[in-house]
Structure to design on (630 residues):
C-alpha cells in the first residue's frame, strides 16, 4: 500500500482514525498524546513496509550489505524527521488540522531519543539517513540505553546529572523482536584439547546476558530507501533459585541487576574499576550481539560464510566496537570451523574503521587482566591477532621500537586503535587534514607498511534536517531560485553561486537570517527570561565539553573582550552574543569546571548595562538535537 504511492490527506486521516480506534479512542476524545502515538504508529507502519520491500529487493539482487556499529546514534526526534523525509508534512498537517490538532504540538511531545551524546552519534545518525537516501541497504547497531547519557541541570553554575527518562515518549518508535534474541557470554574459562587430530575449544562456566533486539526505522529522503537501526537491551537469562528459595532475594536477582546495568546509561563514569568493567561489558555486548546477528542474516541468505567478505561490510565507528574484529574471527574459527588463516583473511576483508581523534588518551587501551577474566576466549583470539600482526610488522621493519609501538598487545595493555589497523581493510579520518595527520603522524608506520588502507572520508551533515525541516524560509528561497534538486543532491546548492552579487537575493537572505535569530531569541526569553540582541553577531560553539574542543580558550577570549570593554566602554566594538551548549562527562572534572566558568561569565557580562549592550553570553542547558533545530 505504502511502497509506490504517496498518501493523500484523506488516507492519512483514515489511518490515524483507525489507529486511534485500535488504542480505544476516537478523534473526538483523543488527547494530543494519543494523537502523537497514533501518528508514530502510522509513520512506523509506512516505514516498516517500505523497509521490508527495500530489503527484499536488495536480497533478490544479492546486493552487498552495510553494517554500521557505533556506541551511540544521536537521532533527535523521529516523528518530525520521518514525516519530512517521506514528503508527507503538508498531508499530515492538513489531516490533523481537520481533526482539530496542531501538528507542531505533537512534535513537542516526543523526547529526543536517549541513544547518543555528541558528534560521534550525530555522524552515525547522518550516515543512516544518507545510506537510505542513496539506496544502499544498511543496518546500524547500538545499545538501547534506558536513561540515555544524562539530563543536564545547571545549579549555581555547576552541572548536575539527572536520569534522561526518554522511553515513556520514545518507545513508540521501537519494534521489539524477541525471537532474534542473542546470548552474550562473560567470564568463565576456556579448555582446549585434541581429539582424533582436531583441536577443540570448550568455553564453559560463563554467565549469559540476553541481548534483546529493538528496531527503529530511519527513512531516507523521498522514502524509497529505509535504513534500520537495531538497538540491544540487556536482560538477565535467569535468577538464582536456590537463593530465592532461601529468601535471599537480593542475591537471587543480583545477576539480573548486573546484566541489565549494561543497557542503562551511555558512557558510564569509568574513573574507577567498576566503571571500566561496565564500559568493556557494554562494548563487548554490542559487538557480540551485532556480529552474531550479521552472520545469521548472511547464513539465512547464502548458507555459507566463504563469501562473507564479498557480501558484507562492517564499519566500526571509533574504537568502541573494535572487539567486533576478534568476535568475527572467533565465530568463523570456532563456530564455522574455518581454519585460522581463512578466518583471519575474511575478517580483514570485511571490517573498516573510522578514527575520530588523534589524542593519545582517546585511543582506547584496556588492561590485559580485564580481558583474561571477563572475556577469556576473546583474549585468546586477541593474542592470535597480535601474533599475526607482530610477525607482519617485524618482517617489514626489523625494528624493535616500531614493533613495540605498533603492537596490538604490549606490556599488559590491549591497544584498540592498533587492533583496528591490524584487522581493518580500511582506515579513515573525518576530514582531509585529520586523515593526513593519521597518515603522516599518529599511524605513520602502519601507513608506510600498508598505504592502501588509509583513506579520507570527510564528515558531512544531514543538511535536509537543518535546512528543509528547520529553516523553511531559506528552503523556500532555494526552491524559488534553484529548484528542488538540492533536497536530494547537495551539489545542486552550487547553483546558488550565480546570485552571489544579486542584491535582492542577498537582502532576502538577510531577512531570513534575522527572522531565524528572532525565533531563537523568542525561545531564549521564554526559557530563561533573557533578552538577546538580534542585531548583534551570534557566535555559537555547540560541542560536548572537552579540553580539545577548546571551549575554555573561547571563554578566555570573551573574558579578554569583557575586560577591554570595562576599561573603555566606548571603544569601537561590534556587538556580539556568544552562545554555548555542551555536556561534560560526569567524571571529567576540568570540563565541569569549564562549564562553571562559562555560566559564571554569562552572569558577569549581564551585571554592567554598558558592557552588556555590546557583549553577552548565553548558555543552553541540556543541549540536544531538537535544540539545534531552533
Amino acid at each position: 500500500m505504502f511502497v509506490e504511492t504517496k498518501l493523500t490527506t484523506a488516507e492519512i486521516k483514515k489511518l490515524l482514525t483507525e489507529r486511534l480506534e485500535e488504542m480505544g479512542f476516537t478523534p473526538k476524545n483523543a488527547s494530543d498524546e494519543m494523537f502523537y502515538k497514533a501518528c508514530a504508529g502510522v509513520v512506523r507502519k509506512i516505514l516498516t513496509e517500505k523497509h521490508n520491500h527495500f530489503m527484499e529487493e536488495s536480497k533478490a539482487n544479492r546486493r552487498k550489505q552495510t553494517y554500521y556499529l557505533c556506541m551511540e546514534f544521536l537521532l533527535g526526534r523521529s516523528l518530525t524527521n520521518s514525516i519530512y523525509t517521506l514528503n508527507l508534512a503538508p498531508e499530515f498537517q492538513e489531516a490533523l488540522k481537520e481533526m482539530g490538532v496542531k501538528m507542531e504540538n505533537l512534535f513537542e511531545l516526543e523526547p529526543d531519543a536517549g541513544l547518543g551524546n555528541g558528534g560521534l552519534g550525530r555522524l552515525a545518525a547522518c550516515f543512516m539517513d544518507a545510506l537510505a537516501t542513496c539506496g544502499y541497504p544498511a543496518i546500524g547497531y547500538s545499545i538501547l540505553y534506558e536513561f540515555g547519557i544524562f539530563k543536564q541541570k545547571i545549579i549555581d553554575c555547576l552541572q548536575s546529572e539527572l536520569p534522561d527518562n526518554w522511553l515513556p515518549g520514545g518507545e513508540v518508535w521501537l519494534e521489539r523482536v524477541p525471537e532474534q534474541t542473542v546470548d552474550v557470554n562473560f567470564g568463565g574459562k576456556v579448555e582446549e584439547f585434541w581429539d582424533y587430530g582436531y583441536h577443540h575449544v570448550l568455553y564453559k562456566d560463563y554467565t549469559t546476558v540476553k541481548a534483546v533486539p529493538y528496531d527503529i526505522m530511519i527513512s531516507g529522503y523521498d522514502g524509497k530507501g529505509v535504513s534500520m537501526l537495531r538497538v540491544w537491551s540487556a536482560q538477565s537469562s535467569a535468577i538464582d533459585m536456590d537463593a530465592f528459595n532461601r529468601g535471599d532475594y537480593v542475591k537471587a536477582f543480583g545477576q539480573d541487576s548486573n546484566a541489565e546495568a549494561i543497557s542503562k546509561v551511555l558512557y558510564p563514569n569509568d574513573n574507577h574499576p567498576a566503571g571500566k568493567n561496565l564500559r568493556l561489558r557494554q562494548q563487548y555486548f554490542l559487538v557480540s550481539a551485532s556480529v552474531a546477528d550479521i552472520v545469521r542474516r548472511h547464513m539465512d541468505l547464502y548458507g555459507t560464510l566463504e563469501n562473507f567478505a564479498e557480501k558484507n561490510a562492517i564499519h566500526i565507528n571509533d574504537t568502541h566496537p573494535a572487539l567486533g574484529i576478534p568476535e568475527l574471527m572467533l565465530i568463523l574459527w570456532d563456530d564455522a570451523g574455518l581454519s585460522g588463516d581463512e578466518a583471519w583473511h575474511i575478517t580483514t576483508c570485511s571490517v573498516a574503521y573510522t578514527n575520530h581523534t588523534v589524542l593519545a588518551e582517546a585511543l582506547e587501551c584496556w588492561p590485559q587482566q580485564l580481558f583474561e577474566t571477563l572475556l577469556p576466549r576473546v583474549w585468546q583470539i586477541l593474542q592470535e591477532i597480535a601474533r599475526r600482526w607482530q610477525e607482519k610488522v617485524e618482517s617489514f621493519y626489523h625494528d624493535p621500537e616500531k614493533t613495540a609501538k605498533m603492537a596490538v598487545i604490549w606490556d599488559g595493555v590491549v591497544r584498540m586503535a592498533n587492533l583496528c589497523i591490524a584487522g581493518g581493510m580500511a582506515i579513515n579520518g573525518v576530514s582531509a587534514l585529520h586523515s593526513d595527520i593519521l597518515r603522516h603522524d599518529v599511524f605513520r608506520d602502519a601507513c608506510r607498511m600498508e598505504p592502501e588502507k588509509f583513506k579520507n572520508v570527510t564528515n558531512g551533515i544531514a543538511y535536509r534536517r537543518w535546512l528543509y525541516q528547520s529553516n523553511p524560509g531559506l528552503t523556500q528561497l532555494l526552491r524559488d531560485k534553484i529548484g528542488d534538486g538540492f533536497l536530494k543532491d547537495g551539489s545542486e546548492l552550487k547553483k546558488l553561486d550565480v546570485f552571489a552579487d544579486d542584491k535582492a537575493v542577498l537582502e532576502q537572505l538577510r531577512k531570513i537570517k534575522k527572522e531565524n535569530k528572532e525565533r531563537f531569541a523568542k525561545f531564549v526569553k521564554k526559557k530563561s527570561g533573557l533578552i538577546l540582541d538580534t542585531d548583534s553577531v551570534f557566535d555559537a560553539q555547540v560541542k560536548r565539553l572537552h579540553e580539545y574542543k577548546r571551549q575554555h580558550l573561547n571563554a578566555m577570549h570573551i573574558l579578554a573582550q569583557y575586560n577591554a570593554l570595562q576599561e573603555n566602554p566606548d571603544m569601537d566594538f561590534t556587538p556580539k552574543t556568544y552562545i554555548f551548549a555542551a555536556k561534560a562527562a560526569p567524571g571529567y572534572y576540568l570540563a565541569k569546571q569549564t562549564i562553571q566558568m562559562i555560566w559564571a561569565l554569562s552572569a558577569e557580562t549581564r551585571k554592567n548595562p554598558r558592557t552588556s549592550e555590546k557583549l553577552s553570553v548565553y548558555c543552553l542547558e541540556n543541549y540536544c538535537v531538537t535544540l539545534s533545530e531552533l
User: Anything to note?
Assistant: The chain has 27 helices and 20 strands. The first strand starts at residue 65 and ends at 69. The mean pLDDT is 92. The two ends are 35 Å apart (CA to CA).
